[in-house]
Amino acid sequence: MKNTNPKNTVSWKNLFKHYKKVKKYHIKDLFLKDINRFKNFSLCFKKKILIDFSKNRITQNTIKKLLSLANEMDLKNAIRSMYFGKKINKTENRAVLHVALRNLKSNFYVLKNLKIKFSIKKMLKKIKIFSESIINKKWLGYTGKYITDIVNIGIGGSHLGPLMVSKALTPFKNRLKLHFLSNIDGTNIKELLKKVKIDQTLFIICSKTFTTQETLTNAKIIKKIFLKHAILKKNMKYHFIGISENEKKVLKFGIEKKNFFKLWNWVGGRYSLWSAAGLSIVLSIGFKNFLLLLKGASDMDKHFLKTPFKKNIPVLLALISIWYNNFFKSETEAVIVYDEYLSHFYEYLQQSSMESNGKNIDRNMNLVNWQTGSIIWGSTGTNCQHSFFQLLHQGTKLIPCDFIVPIKTYNSVFNSDHHLKLLSNFFAQTKALSFGNNNIKNFKNKKEVNSNKIFKNCFGNQPNNSFLITEINPYNLGSLIALYEHKIFCQGVILNIFSFDQWGVEYGKKISVEILKVLKNKYKCKNYDNSTNSLINFFKKFK
Ligand code: F6P
To answer: Where in the chain is the domain with CATH 3.40.50.10490?
Structure first.
C-alpha cells in the first residue's frame, strides 16, 4: 500500500478548491440543474439493493475529483493486496483475509494459498455437522435432554456480529433460543439464569485471544454454575464450545478438543462473523442460510474487486464519506434503519468503522492533520424521528445519514398498513432533510416574521443515502455487511491509516487489569493522577 499523505496529493488540493464552490450549493438546486440526477447518482446491486446517493452535496465533478483521489492513493492495488493475502495489517504483521472466508468456491478470487483454503473448508464442514446435530436434537446434554438454548459468551467482534445478524434474520430462526453474555456485569448472568435450563443449554465461549477479561470472567462463572448442577467436569463436553485462535487456553479451560473451533490470526475480531465466530448465527438460522449470507458477501466482494471505481458502490460511498468528513468537517454519520430486526446494525457498524478508522497516526508514522474515522451513531426509524431528528431538520450541524429500508416486511399484521406507514416516513424524511420546506430569503417581509412562520422553516440540504433493499434475507444482509466492510477499508486506505489494528482498545484493556489489582488491595491509591486516585479512593471508602 502507498503511504502518501492524502493532503499532499494534487487531487486533495483540487477537491479543496472545488469544495469552496460546492459548499454553497443546495441539494434542491442540484436536482433542478440535472433532471437525470437520480439516474446519474444511484446504483443497483443485483436488483436487490438500490443505493440512491443523489441527495448529496456533490456534482459529477465532485465524483470525478474524488475518484482521482482514490487513484492517486493507489486504492486499486490496496484492494488487490488484501485479496491476495498480503500482510496489510502491518502493525500486527498479519494478512487480512475475511474475504477468503466467503469465497471458497468463487473463481474470481485471487488468493492462492491452498493451506488457508483447505482449513476454511474443513472448518465449514465441522460447523455444518455440529450445528445440524444440535438443531436436529441429536446432540444431547448431560441429562440426556436435547439443547434448547444457546449462550454466546464474547465481546466486541465476538458478540456484535453474531448479535446483529441473528436479530436481523429473526424470520429465519429455528427452534433454538439465542442469548448473549458480553458485558462484565453480573446483572446479565442473573437475568440469563432466569431464562435457561442449564442441562439444556450450550455455552459458546468466543474469544480470539481467549484472554479478554469480560469474556473469561463470564465464562469462568458460567462454568462454576454449570458444575454446581452437573457435578462432574466430564459433563462439560456436552455443553461447552470454545472458539479461539488460542487452542491451548481453550483446552486448559476444560473444553474438549473436538469442541474447539479455530479462529485464524488473519481474521480480525470485527470481521469474524463469517468464520467460526459466527457459530451462534449458524445455530440460529441453520447452515444453508449461513451459506447464503456468505454468498451475498461473496457477490459484493466480486463487485468491489471487479467494478470500475465510478460504478463501485463501496468505493463511491467511502469517497462521499471522506468528502463530508474532511471538507465539510462533519463529525458524524447517522445510520437510520426502518426495520426493527436491524436494530443492532448501527452498533455493529460503530465497532467495525470506529475501531478500524479511529486512528491518529498515518502509515508513515506521522500524526495526521486530517480527519480519519467519523462518529457513527443511529437508531430505528420512526422512533428517532421523535427524538433526534429535530436537530437534523433544524439544528446547526451537518449530519450525513444512511437510510436502510426493506421493501418487504415479514410481519404484516392483520392487513394493517403498518409497513406502508413505516416506509412513507422513510421517504418523507429523506425528502424533507434534503429539500427542506423553504428558504430564509422568503421570510424577509415583516408580516411573515411576525406570524412566527420563520420558526417553521427547514433549510434542508442535509445529505443522505438511501439503501432500499428488496427484503432482509441472508443473501441481502451478507451483501450489505460486506458493502460497509469494504467502504471502511477504502476510507482507511485513502486516509493513509492502518485499519486493522486497535491499539487504543488494547491500552484501555491493560489499564483496567492494572486498576483491578488496586481495587482489590486495602491501600489508599496513589498510583495515578489526582482525579483517578480520588475516584478510586472514594469508591474504596464506600464500597
Ligand atoms: O475491542 C477490542 C477487541 O480486541 C476487538 O477487536 C475484539 O473483537 C474484542 O476485543 C474481543 O476480543 P477477543 O475476541 O480476543 O475476546
So the answer is: 6-72+307-438+451-494, 99-290
